[in-house]
Amino acid sequence: MLDFARARSRHATRRAAAPWLTAAALLATPGVGAEVPAIFRDADLALGEQLIRQHRCSQCHAERVGGDGSAIYRPQGRINTAGLLRGMVEQCNAALNMQMWPEEVTAVAAVLNRDHYKFKD
């Protein structure tokens, strides 16, 4: 009888600890639980990556600023919030007549934020 009570107690302890262990494992996983600006929270990153390749954003940036084009990111004092970043992508969309939908603009901006800007607001 004593072994049954001990086994039952261990089972209850494991069951109570399971949600905490799951949460800890998820938070320890890179990228999960990371702070993302609200504007990018539901963005489709795979779509953003695809659109960046499709519209050849890197090539255009390299033509404009030289080198690999990365110098275009974070112009001094111009883009300092996630909203301004999304606005800049929308400006490129309109100026170059890319005809991207709003959710596509957001997806591209979310990828740029993840890879270059790292805004957390």
From TrEMBL:
Keywords: Heme, Iron, Metal-binding, Signal. GO terms for molecular function: electron transfer activity; heme binding; metal ion binding. Residues 43-116 form the Cytochrome c domain. It comes from the Bacteria. Coiled coil: none annotated. InterPro entries: Cyt_c-like_dom, Cyt_c-like_dom_sf. Residues 1-34 form the signal peptide. This is Green heme protein. It comes from Tepidimonas alkaliphilus.
